[in-house]
Amino acid sequence: MDVRKISCIAVVAMLADLWLPRLVAAQDYQREIDRLAEEVAASAESAGLKNIAVMDFTDLQSNVQEIGRFMSEELTTSLVLKKRPFRTIDRANLRSILVEQKLTMTGLIDLDNVRKLKISGIDGLVAGTLTPLGDGIRITVKVIKIETAEYVGAARGVVPKTSTMDSLGTEIEGAGVSSSGPATQQSAGYKKGKYVVQDKTLRMTLKYLRKDSGSQARAIVLVESLREEELRICLESIEIVDDQGEHWERSDNSGMAMCSYETTITPDSPVTALVEFRSEKSANRATKFNLLGRIRISDGSRRWGSSLSFQDVPSGL
Question: Tens digit of pLDDT for each residue in 222-240?
């Protein structure tokens, strides 16, 4: 056989060894999230719930970390992708309701506090915990009926770790801090670096940026409030400009609303924005990106803005 053909076969085999396990893991991960969503939906329907909300998932020490927010967002998305006999409350709206009731996500671990949400129209909650398990993460979810503050359903499963999880950090049990306290530099895990921008109001950390294909990319930005008062924020604009001069436009986002709506943020309730982008070029060769945008802020009496600017970010952050 021709030496060049042998070399090509070897390269293809090597690439398959590298990428096939990641592809399979991503598919298994999505199937498991969807399965958990179906079990949650069946429990909610059986209990006659009409309006449910998914809480931030915690570790076994009741700490909320970025991966817990990400996984609860993923489960929420799977719940709303299908038509259900109940309504799933947007997580940004849940934060607003918690602020009104002077509660935090971790405060809802106390079932006596759960009943306070009934006056807001929510009659069911989905709580979850994450536990590291080898190359995977065990997710345990419970469905709570607010009227009686009792568990009406539960489900559990193991999802394989993906590159997105690695970017958020997977040292789950005991590694984070509770979201019930102020977001100080120490408690928020703040590290000064090129992927952190901060002003007097917000600290914004780029946690993840990756080109998923030749024309699609996604980014995760953690937004923390440095003010003691309740604020409302929204994405006024956001885009990617790559090292080929191509502009990538936002195609979808979750966690933080665009400015037709607003998201509530407080010192004990940081926001994780997951933003997806699309390029018109289907085989874009970009390897570095500038993420540019602006967050609009309101305190009820005035509005102002904070600028997002992360320069020369490699794909795979």
Answer: 898 998 888 999 999 999 9
One domain for residues 110 and 220: no
Backbone φ/ψ region at 61: left (φ over 0), alpha (ψ -120 to 50), beta: alpha
At residue 169's C-alpha, the angle toward residues 274 and 190, to 5°, is: 80
Residue pair 62/109 in contact (Cβ under 8 Å)? The answer is yes
> Do residues 15 and 64 share a domain?
yes
Residue 255 CB-density burial (10 A; 0-12 exposed, 13-18 middle, 19+ buried): buried
- Whether 1 is in a domain gets the answer no
β-partners of residue 273 are: 221
pLDDT in tens, 189-233: 333 456 888 888 999 988 888 887 778 888 888 898 998 888 999
User: What's the angle, vertex CA 54, arms to CA 53 and CA 57, rounded to 5?
Assistant: 155
Straight-line distance from the first to the last Cα atom of the chain, in angstroms, rounded to the nearest whole number: 41
User: Contact at 8 Å (CB) between 109 and 178?
Assistant: no
Same domain, 84 and 157: yes
Q: Which of 66, 63, 35, 176 has its CA nearest to residue 129?
A: 63
Q: Considering the entire predicted model, what is its pTM? A: 0.51
Domain of residue 227: give its range: 196-314
CATH of the domain at 73: 3.40.50.10610
> At residue 123, what is the residue type?
D
